[in-house]
Amino acid sequence: MPDFSFISMASLPCVILDASHQSPDTDYSPLLRQVIAQLSGLPSEQICLDRTPAGKPVVTNAPFHFSISHTDQWLALAFDHAPIGVDVESCRGQPSLKLARRFFTPEEVVWLDAVDPDFVDEAFVHLWVLKESFVKQQGSALARVLGRVAFIGDVPRVTGSERDLDKSLHCAVWSLDGCARIGVTWKTPTPPVFYTRQGEALNLSMAPALWSGSVAHTHKKARINDPGN
User: Fold this and answer.
1) Predicted confidence (pLDDT) per residue in 102-120, tens digit
2) What percent of the chain stands above pLDDT 90?
3) Residue 95 CB-density burial (10 A; 0-12 exposed, 13-18 middle, 19+ buried)
4) Which domains does the chain have, with CATH numbers?
5) Which of 65, 92, 120, 145 is the most buried (most CB within 10 A)?
6) 92 vs 21, residue with greater confidence
7) Do residues 188 and 82 make contact, with C-beta atoms less than 8 angstroms apart?
């Protein structure tokens, strides 16, 4: 059984990352219960996991929030005192522009279309993990939010007639081994600390913000690692 004694309520917000291969059919609830048991002091069998009407997983008998995401390589579990959202995605093999034109805001599509083709998958994933982590933090349905919330400099902005967003939210993206990105949206003033499943603290590199000023000033072939071009 994994030892999660390295985390406590005082260590939140935090994200636990597991780099082992994951199957789409993997049941993560036992692992999740072990972490929640460590944080809450409750026996694993007494932990009450549920979902909101929008499908957000919640623990109903412990004073903290969590979010979960996984790919075929990475598992991410995020915990905080306030609502938190996490999303992890691979940068490889993404149908970037097709999905962006269907789900992103017009200004994000314009920006993505201007990115150097060598970096377009990476740029798409950067925006996607920001958006999905935001959706999870809000507890909203993904399809209702993707085309209504634009990210300018990693800051969410609601378009159209939607209500103003909570200005205390933080949204950021970190790089994982060069071929994946993890996005986190959180409310606590301090940024999340990343750990391996074995308790080793990770010093991840924060991916650079994709935007610099207005999208109208974005030049053709702008590289995401030099957004001021």
Assistant:
1) 888 888 888 888 888 888 8
2) 37
3) exposed
4) 9-217 (3.90.470.20)
5) 65
6) 92
7) yes
